[in-house]
């Protein structure tokens, strides 16, 4: 107990910072200090109901804070309160938080429970300066729980956030917004120090909302796992109020945003969206097969779907586990033919785009479509007949002569992604492409 008191006095009570410790106790493998009051030089007061050191004092398993409150002069309520904070394997019985939370220091574990922050006093002034000199911010942020495990520059073992709520008001401009997030979780993120080789076991967002005066941005759920080639990622229940958000944009940008609103939503301003992409590896076939399918739906705009089946031979002595850890290996894998299908069903996007372009040019929509056909056919000299046919088909949809386009692509054998990336135009001549226009 004497060592804990001495360390607390040394690290938390140095200089003009004063510390008072109400009681010291020891219970089994735990040393505790209770009813701690820290008086900072600028007048702020930090109170801690209890501080526990668990395990060996020199290398503790964890240290925990309970009942933290920060009170500023001339502010009636605490600007920050925290029910519990625990640091796992902190390296010292009384660690310096600035060292533990430094960006270049590995963090073995951090848990927060029931955090409340109020924009008042000094904190409000700091946030106001970052927001803008003319701002006058008020508001609050509450958080039910946060968990971090094994975080470093290279990896993140686990991250969980639960029950985030916040409200911000700028009294100067009249802007206000409310933020809500039910859950954000992430596990097994690796390869952060190796660009292009990132790997994610799982990540998920549930119940996101950002709302203001007659506008909102909502997301029911989003998720992701895997890497660039073998993965499962998607989102559902996305809703964006484009029309009302335009009011918040700078005046010089509103006209362009209104054009975008007209094209995407037909002027309603309401956009709902959902999407998913799933890629799987099947090594029970010979050769192994990489399959993928997905879709993107935009209400009032259109629907895009794809399917892909690629027989693949990985480079010599490379396993699928190695390719998952180093996705660039897929670029040199040999494709033994394969098929890709892309399907687009229009819900008004391309015809509205034609109308907007025609209005900007001061011509009729039919004249704009005729120009589009002429320009699309010119692509044949630049990119070949297949690309020209694709462009003509899209102009057909713009003109209202068709509503959906399905493109079937058969790949040659052998073929590599690296070849396509090095020479996309030349490689495209080797593809067999057919179109279905309805």
Tags for this entry?
single chain; 438 residues; alpha+beta; 19-stranded antiparallel sheet; 47% strand; flat
| Strands, count | 19
Helices and strands: which structural class?
alpha+beta
Principal-axes shape call: flat
Low-confidence parts: none
Helix fraction bin: 10-25%
- Estimate the mean pLDDT confidence: 88
- How large a portion of the residues is in β-strands, by DSSP E? over 45%
Give the topology string: H per helix, E per strand: HEEEEEHEHEEEEEEHHEEEHEEHHHEHHE
Radius of gyration: 29 Å
Biggest beta sheet summary:
19 strands, antiparallel
Q: Ends: how far apart?
A: 81 Å
> How many helices in DSSP terms?
11
Q: What do you see in this structure?
A:
This protein is an alpha+beta fold. It contains 11 helices and 19 strands. It has helices spanning 2-12, 97-100, 121-131, 242-245, 254-265, 320-325, 349-361, 365-383, 385-398, 417-422, 424-428, and strands at 18-27, 30-39, 45-54, 62-71, 80-88, 107-119, 137-151, 156-170, 175-190, 199-212, 215-226, 231-241, 270-282, 288-298, 302-313, 334-335, 339-346, 404-410, 432-437. It has a 19-stranded antiparallel β-sheet that branches. Helix 5 runs antiparallel to helix 7 (349-361), helix 7 packs across helix 8 and helix 7 packs across helix 9 (385-398). The chain starts with a helix and ends with a strand.
């Amino acid at each position: 107990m004497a060592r804990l008191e001495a360390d607390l006095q040394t690290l938390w009570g140095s200089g003009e910072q004063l510390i008072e410790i109400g009681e010291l106790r020891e219970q089994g493998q735990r040393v505790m200090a209770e009813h701690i009051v820290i008086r900072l030089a600028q007048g702020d007061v930090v109170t801690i109901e209890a501080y526990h050191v668990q395990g060996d004092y020199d290398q503790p398993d964890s240290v925990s804070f309970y009942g933290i409150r920060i009170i500023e002069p001339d502010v009636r309520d605490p600007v920050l309160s925290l029910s519990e904070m625990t640091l796992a394997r902190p390296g010292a019985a009384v660690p310096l938080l600035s060292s533990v939370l430094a960006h270049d220091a590995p963090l073995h574990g951090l848990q927060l429970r029931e955090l409340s922050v109020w924009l008042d006093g000094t904190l409000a002034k700091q946030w106001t300066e970052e927001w803008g000199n003319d701002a006058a911010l008020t508001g609050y942020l509450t958080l039910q729980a946060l968990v971090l495990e094994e975080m470093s520059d290279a990896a993140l073992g686990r991250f969980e956030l639960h029950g985030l709520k916040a409200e911000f008001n700028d009294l100067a401009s009249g802007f206000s917004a409310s933020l809500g997030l039910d859950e954000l979780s992430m596990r097994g993120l690796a390869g952060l120090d190796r660009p292009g080789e990132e790997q994610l076991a799982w990540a998920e967002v549930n119940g996101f909302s950002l709302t203001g005066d007659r506008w909102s941005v909502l997301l029911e759920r989003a998720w992701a796992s895997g890497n660039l080639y073998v993965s499962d990622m998607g989102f559902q229940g996305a809703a964006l109020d484009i029309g009302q958000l335009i009011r918040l944009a700078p005046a010089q940008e509103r006209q362009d945003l209104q054009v975008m609103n007209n094209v995407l939503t037909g002027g309603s301003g309401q956009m709902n969206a959902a999407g998913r992409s799933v890629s799987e590896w099947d090594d029970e076939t010979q050769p192994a097969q990489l399959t993928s399918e997905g879709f993107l739906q935009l209400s009032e705009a259109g629907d895009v779907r794809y399917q892909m089946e690629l027989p693949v031979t990985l480079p010599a002595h490379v396993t699928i586990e190695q390719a998952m850890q180093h996705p660039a290996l897929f670029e040199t894998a040999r494709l033994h033919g394969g098929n890709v299908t892309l399907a687009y069903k229009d819900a008004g996007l391309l015809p509205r785009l034609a109308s907007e372009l025609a209005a900007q040019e001061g011509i009729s929509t039919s004249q704009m479509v005729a120009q589009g056909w002429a320009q699309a056919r010119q692509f044949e000299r630049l990119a070949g007949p297949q690309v020209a046919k694709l462009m003509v088909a899209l102009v057909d949809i713009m003109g209202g002569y068709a509503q959906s386009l399905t493109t079937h692509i058969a790949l040659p054998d052998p073929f590599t992604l690296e070849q396509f990336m090095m020479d996309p135009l030349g490689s495209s001549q080797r593809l067999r492409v057919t179109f279905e226009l309805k």
